[in-house]
Specification:
alpha/beta; Nucleotidyltransferase, domain 5; five-stranded mixed sheet; 393 residues; binds adenosine-5'-diphosphate
């Protein structure tokens, strides 16, 4: 009997799913979709690998519909699709593996307890990631589950790259730079040998530019530094997150504005970044199309900060052989790629304007000392591969 792996990625109001079926040695995407608007106006859609809509559903009594009902609907959809194919397991995207998990792991009661202890490290993501794992354990106890972490790929970074200059006791207690988007970087690292063998063995900076955004320095395909730190609010400005700021600003807001932790959390996670600076939108497409001077300013700051982080990561690598753009902005915005590459001319990047407009994959000229690439990420495939390996199926 042929095998399949399901992948779940749960957020606060959405549950995304993908189904991969084994074809020879490969895992092939056959179904994907999501339930979104949970607790408010829930909608479900399932699509084929080519994007054709296969089924939709909307719930009338929306207000009460949460993750459990959405999960039931998704499982029923998957089982309907699978017929004679065996569902070998479910892989989950989990943002934080803490100090304990530097590899994907099969979930049991102990693992779930461990992962719940990391909720304070990622309070906006971790609880939602764990919800479907717990629900499936209750509802389908025989179905194997594997947790795949956004932090795991970075856990092998040199200790210096993981340190804050805080008292050692805090480092030992887990207050350190973890880095995120690890599944995306791991996927890019797995593709690099086919694209650019020299860079795969050398020094590459990957820019994952989506609503959340970060950059990662790869040496020989391994993460050695990244812009995100203890939490996913560090580093680059993002759609609504501020990125790196002087920690003194937080103290000032507490002392002078009377803001507490929750108010500051809302400010730095939800009201800052592209949205906060522009006052227009968190969406890069909207900002690029806007005539508002503040929209242009937000984009200018975004590109400027990428340029500075690129210098820092190139320094950590001792030079640069390649740049790789991925994520919604990195994959789709020729304008942002062009501006970042022009800023990186001092690092040997020469942009091929025509190739960049065409979307790559290679967007640097033949003579460019440092190559530049566009490569769509595929975190779901990475999770499916890990799940298959962990389950030995
Ligand atoms: P998430 O981090 O939520 O997965 P995505 O990777 O889908 O987000 O990225 C979303 C971002 O990509 C948004 O800012 C969106 O405007 C941007 N984006 C998508 N397509 C384009 C485009 N053609 N030009 C510019 N930005 C784009």
């Amino acid at each position: 009997m042929s095998q399949a792996i399901a992948v779940l990625n749960a957020g606060s109001s959405s549950l995304k799913f993908s189904l991969f079926e084994q074809v020879g040695d490969e895992l092939e995407l056959t179904l994907r979709g999501q339930a979104e608007g949970l607790q408010t106006a829930p909608r479900f859609v399932a699509k084929s690998a080519s994007g054709e809509t296969l089924s939709t559903h909307a719930w009338d009594d929306g207000k009460r519909l949460g993750h459990a009902d959405a999960l039931d609907h998704i499982v029923a959809t998957l089982r309907g699709r699978l017929a004679g194919t065996h569902l070998a397991g479910v892989g989950h995207r989990v943002v934080h593996g803490g100090l304990l998990y530097s590899q994907p792991v099969r979930v049991d009661a102990q693992v779930l307890d461990d992962l719940a202890q990391f909720i304070p490290l990622a309070p906006l993501h971790q609880p939602h990631n764990l919800t479907p794992i717990r629900l499936l354990q209750e509802r389908q106890p025989a179905l194997p589950q594997v947790a795949c972490f956004d932090t795991a790929f970075h856990r092998a970074q040199p200790e210096l790259a993981q340190m804050f200059a805080l008292p050692r006791e805090l480092h030992d207690a887990g207050v350190r730079r973890y880095g995120f988007h690890g599944l995306s970087y791991e996927y890019i690292a797995s593709r690099l040998p086919q694209l650019d063998p020299k860079a795969a063995q050398g020094r590459t900076v990957v820019l994952h530019l989506g609503n959340g955004a970060s950059m990662c320095a790869l040496a020989g395909g391994r993460s050695v530094a990244s812009t995100m730190g203890f939490t996913a609010v560090d580093g680059l400005p993002m759609g609504t997150r501020c990125g790196a700021i002087d920690p003194g600003v937080i103290l000032y807001l507490m002392d002078q504005r009377g803001m507490d932790a929750r108010a500051i959390e809302k400010l730095i996670y939800n009201q800052s970044g592209l949205l906060g600076v522009s006052g227009v939108s968190s969406d890069m497409r909207t900002l690029l199309a806007s005539k508002e001077p503040r929209a242009a300013l937000a984009v200018d700051l975004y590109v400027y900060r990428i340029g500075r982080e690129l210098g820092s990561l190139a320094a950590a690598l001792g030079g640069l052989d390649a740049l790789v753009f991925t994520g919604g902005i990195g994959e789709n915005s020729a304008e942002i790629r062009a501006r970042v590459c022009r800023h990186a001319a001092w690092l040997g990047v020469a942009l091929d304007e025509v190739a960049n407009q065409a979307g790559g994959p290679r967007i640097s000229t033949a003579a460019s000392a440092t190559t530049a690439w566009v490569l769509p990420t595929n975190e779901e495939l990475m999770i499916a591969r890990h799940t298959r390996r962990v389950l030995g199926s």
